């Protein structure tokens, strides 16, 4: 039973997350693993708690 964990910066719509889950599940089916066996966990992180290239996400994404 595969478990996929995804960290995303907050702000994606529910529709975006549904598309992501469906796409990942379909990718597993492409390699012979039934999508019913795939678990996907999306962890949304506040911009204040995400850093990249020495900057807080609020700096390079805006508030």
Structure description:
- With about 60 residues, the chain is of the alpha+beta class.
- The protein has one domain: Macrophage Migration Inhibitory Factor, CATH 3.30.429.10.
- The protein has helices at about 15-30, 55-60, and strands spanning about 5-10, 40-45, 50, 55.
- The strands form 2 sheets. The chain has a two-stranded parallel ribbon with strand order 1-2.
- Strand 3 and strand 4 form a beta hairpin.
- The relative contact order is 0.25.
By secondary-structure content and strand pairing, the structural class works out as alpha+beta
Name of the CATH first level: Alpha Beta
Low-confidence segments, ≥5 residues, pLDDT <50? none
Using the coordinates shown, work out and report the CATH topology. Macrophage Migration Inhibitory Factor
* Rg over CA atoms: 15 Å
Strand arrangement in the largest pleated sheet: 1-2
Reading the helices and strands in chain order gives: EHEEEH
Inertia-based shape:
elongated
Please name the fourth-level CATH homologous superfamily: Macrophage Migration Inhibitory Factor
User: Main β-sheet, in a few words?
Assistant: 2 strands, parallel
Beta percentage is: 25-35%
List the helices and strands and how they pair.
Elements: E1 3-9, H1 14-30, E2 39-45, E3 51-52, E4 55-56, H2 57-61
Parallel strand pairs: 1-2
Antiparallel strand pairs: 3-4
